[in-house]
Design goal:
single chain; mainly alpha; MetI-like fold; 2 domains; globular
Length: about 290
């Protein structure tokens, strides 16, 4: 077999495998969109290109008195926004302390953060539920079926990996900048806020966006801690709707799924440049 033929066969195989994975990722999305625009109530009756297009499923979703879709969306945005604000603040301050200060137990703290990243979060589900249940006995606003408790779990879960990412980025910034500012009479907080923070802003934006996408789209932890309809986030609310009826109207469910995914898609496409810059900056030191 000639060398050119061998290269052609390898290229064909590569493109075939790539197209297969692309189809595996894209076709379910188009199927969901088609179901949301199809008057049929079943997933089996949907086609990639429906013969009849209708927005009745979206109108029924927004006008159904049995569904608190607007409330669920508000809850998701509230929980995600508060969680992201706390995550960004604590992450930046913690990363700055671990990068610039030398104190007893610093190495052990970093080792503990790295160990926590090894274990998947699903292993802690039972422990999280029991712990939040016990906390709720003393602090009801942080217990089960509260947004405060859910926010605490989100913040604790996101701190480890984000702290390490931001710390490694701060490590790439010359310490001489800090020392020059301290000699001029600046405090440590002024050094952080006026010198370090502007430089790490791309990484901060990346952490905020990824944290928002993670908390907004979370289902497992939210479903574990939230039980009431009024407290449910959008993912839990849609799941609860599928469990309340024997003959689930999948047209309404898929319409809710599309509307719930739109904010995340918009944020991702607007901010993908910042995500790439934040993840790549600091990789090369000048």
């Amino acid at each position: 077999m000639k060398k050119q033929q061998r290269k052609l066969i390898i290229a064909i195989v590569k493109y075939a495998v790539a197209l297969m994975f692309i189809a595996f990722a894209v076709l379910p999305f188009f199927w969901i969109v088609a179901t949301s625009l199809n008057p049929a109530r079943s997933l089996m009756g949907a086609k990639i290109i429906p013969s009849t297009l209708t927005l009745n499923n979206y109108l029924d979703l927004l006008g159904n008195s049995n569904l608190s879709f607007g409330k669920w969306m508000f809850n998701s945005f509230k929980v995600s926004s508060i969680s992201v604000s706390i995550i960004v603040l604590l992450t930046c301050v913690s990363a700055y302390a671990l990068s610039r200060f030398r104190f007893r137990g610093r190495r052990e703290v970093m080792m503990g953060i790295m160990i926590l990243n090894v274990f998947p979060g699903i292993l802690a589900m039972v422990a999280i539920f029991v712990m939040m249940q016990q906390i709720g006995n003393y602090l009801p606003f942080l217990g089960i079926n509260t947004h405060g408790g859910l926010i605490c779990v989100y913040v604790a879960g996101a701190m480890s990996i984000n702290v390490l990412m931001v710390k490694s980025y701060i490590d790439s910034i010359a310490v001489e900048l800090d020392e020059s500012a301290l000699i001029e009479g600046a405090s440590y907080w002024q050094v952080f806020w006026m010198i370090i923070f502007p430089v790490i802003r791309p990484m901060v934006i990346t952490v905020a966006i990824l944290a928002f996408m993670t908390t907004y789209g979370d289902f497992i932890i939210a479903n574990l801690l939230l039980k009431g309809n009024d407290q449910s986030t959008i993912m839990v609310g849609i799941f609860m709707f599928t469990q309340q009826r024997f003959d689930t109207n999948w047209g309404i469910v898929t319409a809710g799924t599309i509307l719930a995914a739109l904010p995340v898609l918009v944020i991702f496409f607007i901010s993908q440049k910042y995500i790439i810059d934040g993840l790549t900056m600091g990789a090369v030191k000048e």
